[in-house]
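[Solved] Which block belongs to which protein?

Original post:
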Amino acid sequence: MRKALITLAIGKKFEQLFNEYCRANWQQYCDLFDFELIVITNALDKSELANTRSPSWQKLLILSQPWSLEYDRIVWVDSDVVINCEYASDITQGVPLDKVGCVDQYSMPTPDIFKLSLERLYKSWDKNNVKYLSNLSAGSYYSNRGIPGDDLNHVIQAGIFVCSPKFHKEIFEKVYYQYDDKSGGGNYENPALSYELLRANLVFWLPCRFNFCVINIISAFYPHILHERKSVFFEFYSRVIRKLTGKHAEQKASKEKIDCLKNIYDLSIFMHFASCSELMPKMKEALILP
């Protein structure tokens, strides 16, 4: 069975990010489990439609390429993912060929903890005047974006999925050409793709370690490091630390972030930096990348 692991890195910034922090560990994973690594650096669609929205949508066109028919299984991975090969296993193992293998965003790492992570994340955003859509339930995630999914209890995290050109090309194209994200709230193709796959009963749930989202784990277990430098408390704390130790609190905070990321890395197979890619350089400092 021929397998490919594919990502999209369009633009110098994203190519550099991928090459610096991802390429080596991705290639190691591909070598371990017999994948071909494909990094797309040019847009698959250059139409007016494509120009009106994020390149993230173009992951839905990977099965429409002539070369995709050469593969039985294709694994899509966003370019802000670090793979932990020490604890890795083949992400396609056990996924039926006619299903799309995904992680449930609202069960990461459990439903209760995910809800807590959202509550803490929203609290941090409120303090810093960050605009967002409140989606404490899976149903509201859809309805807030104009999608009739109030009755749904799950949301796929579309940054990583297992699919097949033979079975999923048509539904991916349907989402690409029939939906938009003009309702706001970000997440690009994710709401529509999640809705269509769940309604069609095409989802096979993967363990959350295959899409371990850093921002949610941090907000659930390490909320004190969210926007820490912007708080009045942090400024006071910094002065105290400097008087007691002669060191800046930023140094201590940086070490805490590195320790936090190392802990998350150890729990992950695919460590996803969605909405927090600025933390990726800390992985080098933690000395955990090949």
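(Second protein starts here: sequence line, then its structure tokens.)
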Amino acid sequence: MERNALNNKIVSSALITSFHSFIFGMNLAIFSTYKEIFVSDKRIASFMMTETEFKHAVCVICLGALLSNLCASMINIKRKNFLIINGMINLIGQLCIKFAFSSFFIICARFIIGIGAGLTTGLVPLYHLKLAPLHLKGLFGSLNQLFCVIGVFFAQIYSFYFNKESNWQIGQNFTLLFVGLHFLSCFFIIKVEENSVQLPNKNIIQLISNPNARKSILIITMILIGQQISGIKSIIFYSEEIFKKTGNSHLYIAFLGISLILGTIVSMFIIDKAGRKKLLLISSLVAAGNLFLLALNKFIFFAIFGFVIGYSIGLGPIPWFIAGEGYPEDYKEAGSTLGISANWLTNYTVALNFPILLNYSTKHAFLPLFVHSFFYFSLFLFYFLRLKEGKLIFCD
């Protein structure tokens, strides 16, 4: 039975679970700012990392997320309990970073953090959709992305102060305190209502075997892949390197975070009125145009602003919850697992290979992959995405 009105318990539960996404965004961006600490001629603590080890430590979060997203669909645990477990995993990951004594241990810690990230992207959007009143589905569904980009922004500001060998551990203590308190708060969220008619959840094999589902699988998976081939995560992972080439890196990074937050907030309040398809198309075209300018090394400041705002009004929030709207109730978890797994695999591939493109040539790094991908992705959305009342329908 759907909820039709807000109350304090719904709002507090939505906010508490949204901080899973905040932690996810923070972890996504914060470690890349530690490069000068861990990759150095000096010995930091009892170890140092090579460039290759550091690159894998940054990207391995995606593999942990991929694993947890696939495994979560096979375990029959209530969403509230899973979210509590996720809070504990986030805490364990941060403890491992705090007490790491080798490069391998750092990579393992990042993998554990990735497990938490995968559970976040799989659980939080679905929990919010079950929690939301009917007329606020889009707004609640966008909370995941909003808190994620706030987490990214926080990580960038945090890194301005706690980015030295002498004080990064102090910053890590604050992170541990916050993650620990969030873990405790997860015990107070409400259980989402189950359907009045209980249907057994279908698995991925059953979903793929259903001929009525194949077009929905293709569309939703492509939308989730399209989110990653936009290049946004690569800009987040390696923002320091990109902005060092333009000067005033701290200022640019702060503006990047503010742009992401403002664009996502705008999207939250227009998404239910404008519709998913229109926002995705506008988002793709605006982001692609600005990415093209960035690739040509023209109007860099304007292009970065335009790109992240274009991304955040559609490609940022919509893919995370569209699977929850595009499948019947008994297929939601399998559909989300399939699409989000493709998202994380693409994320890993792009993040691992983007530094090669960046080192090859700043001018051409974005052009061969991201701009062309945007063009074909926009055509795909225009011709294949079918909607009813602004939402994706289960295709037949």
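Accepted answer:
You had them paired correctly. Confirming on the second one: The first strand starts at residue 387 and ends at 388.
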